[in-house]
Amino acid sequence: MFKSFAVSLGFLTATMLSSPALAGDGGKLQIYVSKKTQSLVVYDGAQIVATSNVSTGRAGHTTPSGIFSILEKRKYHESNLYSNAPMPWMQRITWSGVALHESSSVPNYPASHGCVRLPAAFAKALYQMTERGAHVIISDDPLTPQPVNHATLFRPEMPAPEGTLLSDAEMRPATYEVGATAVEVAAIEVQPKAGASAQVNLESIAPLRILITRRGQRETVLDVQAMLNELGFDAGQPDGLLGSRTIAAINGYKRWKGLPTRGEPVSAAFLDALYKSAGRGKPPLGQLLVRQNFKPLFEAPVEITDPEKPLGTHFIEATHVNRFSGKADWHGVTLDNHLAKQTRTRLGIDADAAPDSLEGALDRVTIPDEVRQKIALMLDEGSSITISDVNDTRETGLGTDFITITRATPRS
Question: SS3 for 362?
Fold first, then answer.
């Protein structure tokens, strides 16, 4: 699939849409649902594309809040949970049963069993606009994406072309138009006739889904397995799980170093000794994970400064990416996400520390240059970044993007 930099976007608004003009870029839209106002707003960057009233889950069947994406689309579907209830124009956002769909009952208050009910005409029009992968952000209060400009955010890069450098060739200056932008190049081909123009097409890249979070046990065990294998202790293929083979390797290392084998397998004393033996310094505090086309792509450790402060939960999407100029426009929001006392204690976060702002969280994250370069070569429109203290894996799995469930701060 190829795309042109000269793209014209139709602008649609109001509850009843006039046409599915944005269907070709439907995976790059953002859908925001507010449970407080029972409303839905579709954005393309900062531009409102469409709005509608909705009906979310009633008490006892509350619609979850958080960052989702459209996983599946069906023109007609019947509920597997509620007596085969019809769900026309269904757009699934979790495999556990939450979706956007048409309903004949969309009152101005929560009334569903957890799904987001849509008026009939709007449900069909929204279905025609979107594609799998489009983000759906559900919150209590309404959220409005704002421009974000920060050095930590990625900028696209063009891959270096393969082939021999033409250092001895006679070059001549030339100007080509890329969409509405004039690009100066050095050319050896015969120039087009006066008044001619050229359209440059690039192959589209599937959007990246990037999660920046604190390291959990899985990431720590992955490091432990890799280092034990390097040191000659057979921990098996690194998978992040404390299986019998890995525990046997851990105990073998502990006996070598005179550490007790009873108690917690991955203790602080064990980790300090293992990292020192492997010459890796201190364990990193953060992890960056990347998915593409609903599948894990790669992951890498990152540094997080001031770990005693919560990062907060933030969502940022690259809404316009120009791989020729190396520029990208990012828009983002901050979501309310309460961290329980037990969670703060487990993560080493101060009990009373307030979540950081989006820009403040970006200030505290350091991404290795080789990771930045890898992402820059793959960055395209619709790529997104989620920053969250907690990596909630209950909904993230096979056939999903990163799904982040948020919890409202208790009202005093």
Answer: helix
pLDDT beyond 80 at 47: yes
Superfamily of domain 2-144: L,D-transpeptidase catalytic domain-like (2.40.440.10)
Is 93 within 8 Å of 68 (Cβ atoms)? yes
Cite the residue boundaries of each domain of the chain with CATH code 2.40.440.10.
2-144
Q: Would you say 287 and 402 are in contact if contact means Cβ atoms under 8 Å apart?
A: no
- Find tokens 């404390």 and name the residue: 242
The answer as to CATH 3.30.70 being correct for domain 205-215+284-406 is: no
**Full-model pTM:** 0.81
Whether domain 219-277 has CATH 2.60.120: the reply is no
The tally of CA atoms less than 13 A away on the side-chain side of residue 249 is 22
Find out whether 170 and 68 touch, Cβ atoms under 8 Å.
no
Q: What is the pLDDT of residue 20?
A: 39
Least confident residue range of 41-45, 112-116, 393-397? 393-397
Q: Which structure tokens are listed for 167?
A: 């250092």
What's the longest Cα–Cα distance across the chain?
Answer: 81
Q: Cα–Cα distance between 100 and 122 in angstroms, integer?
A: 11
Q: State the first-to-last Cα distance of the chain, in angstroms, to the nearest integer.
A: 52
Q: Do 30 and 137 form a contact (C-beta atoms < 8 A)? A: yes
pLDDT tens digits for range 89-148: 999 999 998 999 999 999 989 999 999 999 999 999 999 999 999 999 999 999 999 999
